[in-house]
Structure formats: structure tokens, C-alpha cells
């Protein structure tokens, strides 16, 4: 599939792109929905936000079933399962193409709006969001540099497993031998990526998903972090979310070392 690479400075003058990643059942989809809900709640009462519209894209919609079936892994119990957890299970080229298509549509909507100050926010979420598997490094770098805000939700294995088994259960040996090890294997590259951004101007937030904060309050805190004029935030939650970047990196590193 051919891509038309954009002028990224032009994109970012109109569209704010927020990436939200985390393991299965870390709460990334819920957070995305709550961010959109809280954002829309403020449209009518905040003139700053009234000039902005938002949309979302979800990585889970881009699984390639054929690739999953062809990538069988045998567990310690001798059972073989298709691997849903590795980057090759995703049609990344189609995903990236659809992101570009969405950005084009949003820019066109802004261009045709009578309000010249109109802007857009695109929330993109997925369990392998920051581990792209595009056809070459140039495209992967373009993809990773597309985000204005990077949010990653850490979650301990025990809590992640408990949530997964309660909601969308999988065989025990699949979780222990495939799902979690693959998460650690491929998503640990987030740590290197985020470490490399330490001295850059990237907006990165690593959240401790083990702390069960009110999602509405978390969303409001994040919107404030994104420089919107959100005043009624929970200061306790805000303080716990926005620890130093070194502390955030340490949180992420511990998450990948834990079993």
C-alpha cells in the first residue's frame, strides 16, 4: 500500500494527536472514552474547547486473522494457540493508512469550517501502539513522531490477569505462556523509546494503572496537562499522576521486570 507522507508541521497546527497504550485490560479504551466524554462535556461551557472536535481510532480493529492462525505457539501444557499478541498480528499498513486518512478528513473538515480557529483532537489507542511493525524504519519513525502526547498505562501481571479472566477470559496457559510474555517481549521497547525522549520536548505520561483512581478525574487531569483550561481537577490525583519523568520511567521499568 502506498502512502502519501504529510507535512507534519501542518498536521500539528490543526490536529492534536494523542496515543494511549497499555497491556490488555489496563484501561486504555476506558480512558479514551472518558477523555472524549469529558472533553465533550466542556464544549458548551468553555469557549476555548468549543472550537475543537475529537475523534478516535482503535488498534484492536486491525487484527489479521490469517497471520494469527499461521503463528502458532505451543505452551508448556502442549496446547497450540494462534498468537494474538505479537506486532505481526496487526495489519499495521492499513492501520497507518487509516490514521492518515482520518487526519486528512479532519483537516478537510477544519478547512471547510467557517470558524478558522477550529482544531481537532485524534485519540489513538492500542495494546501495541508504540511497537509498530511497518515495512521499514523510516515509516515506523514517521508513525512514532506523529503523536503529540504519549500515554502509557502500566499494570502488574496479577491485576491484568484477574481483569482479563473476569471480562474476556482466555485459557490459563495461553495467558501465562503467550499473552503476558509477548507483552513483556514487545512492549518493553516502550522503555527504550521513552528513555530516548527524556531530554526532548515530547509530552509523555506513564500512569500506574494499579491505582484505581476515578476515571473521570483522571481524564480531567490529563486534559489540564494538555493545556486546556480545566479548573475543577482533583489535586491529589493530579499530583499522583504527574510525578517526575525519572519516577515514571522507573515505574515502567519495574512493570516490565515484574512477573
Index terms:
alpha/beta, Rossmann fold, two-stranded antiparallel sheet
Describe what this molecule looks like in 3D.
With 259 residues, the protein is an alpha/beta fold. The chain has a single domain (8-257), classed as P-loop containing nucleotide triphosphate hydrolases (Rossmann fold, 3-Layer(aba) Sandwich). The chain is 47% helix and 16% strand. The chain contains eleven helices and seven strands. It has helices spanning 8-14, 28-41, 65-70, 92-111, 137-144, 157-167, 172-187, 189-196, 215-225, 235-241, 245-257, and strands spanning 15-22, 52-58, 72-74, 80-82, 119-126, 149-154, 203-208. The strands form two sheets. A five-stranded parallel β-sheet has the order 2-5-1-6-7, with helices on both faces. It has a two-stranded antiparallel ribbon with strand order 3-4. Helix 2 (28-41) crosses helix 9 (215-225).
Give the helix/strand layout:
Elements: H1 8-14, E1 15-22, H2 28-41, E2 52-58, H3 65-70, E3 72-74, E4 80-82, H4 92-111, E5 119-126, H5 137-144, E6 149-154, H6 157-167, H7 172-187, H8 189-196, E7 203-208, H9 215-225, H10 235-241, H11 245-257
Parallel strand pairs: 1-5, 1-6, 2-5, 6-7
Antiparallel strand pairs: 3-4
Helix pairs in contact: 2-9, 9-10
Amino acid at each position: 500500500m502506498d502512502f502519501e507522507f504529510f507535512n507534519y508541521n501542518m498536521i500539528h497546527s490543526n490536529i492534536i494527536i494523542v496515543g494511549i497504550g497499555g497491556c490488555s485490560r489496563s484501561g486504555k479504551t476506558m480512558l479514551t472514552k472518558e477523555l472524549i466524554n469529558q472533553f465533550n462535556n466542556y464544549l458548551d461551557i468553555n469557549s476555548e474547547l468549543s472550537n475543537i472536535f475529537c475523534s478516535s481510532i482503535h488498534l484492536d480493529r486491525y487484527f489479521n486473522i490469517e497471520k494469527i492462525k499461521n503463528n502458532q505457539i505451543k505452551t508448556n501444557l502442549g496446547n497450540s494457540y494462534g498468537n494474538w499478541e505479537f506486532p505481526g498480528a496487526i495489519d499495521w499498513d492499513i492501520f497507518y493508512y487509516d490514521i492518515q486518512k482520518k487526519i486528512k478528513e479532519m483537516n478537510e473538515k477544519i478547512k471547510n469550517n467557517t470558524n478558522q480557529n477550529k482544531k481537532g483532537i485524534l485519540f489513538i489507542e492500542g495494546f501495541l501502539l508504540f511497537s509498530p511493525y511497518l515495512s521499514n524504519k523510516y515509516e515506523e519513525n514517521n508513525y512514532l513522531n506523529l503523536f503529540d502526547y504519549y500515554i502509557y498505562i502500566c499494570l502488574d501481571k496479577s491485576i491484568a490477569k484477574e481483569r482479563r479472566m473476569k471480562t474476556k477470559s482466555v485459557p490459563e496457559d495461553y495467558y501465562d505462556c503467550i499473552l503476558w510474555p509477548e507483552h513483556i517481549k514487545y512492549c518493553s521497547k516502550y522503555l527504550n523509546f521513552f528513555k530516548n525522549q527524556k531530554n526532548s520536548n515530547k509530552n509523555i505520561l506513564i500512569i500506574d494503572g494499579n491505582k484505581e483512581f476515578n476515571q473521570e478525574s483522571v481524564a480531567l487531569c490529563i486534559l489540564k496537562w494538555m493545556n486546556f483550561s480545566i479548573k475543577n481537577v482533583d489535586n491529589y490525583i493530579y499530583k499522583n499522576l504527574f510525578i517526575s519523568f525519572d519516577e515514571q520511567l522507573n515505574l515502567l521499568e519495574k512493570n516490565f521486570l515484574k512477573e
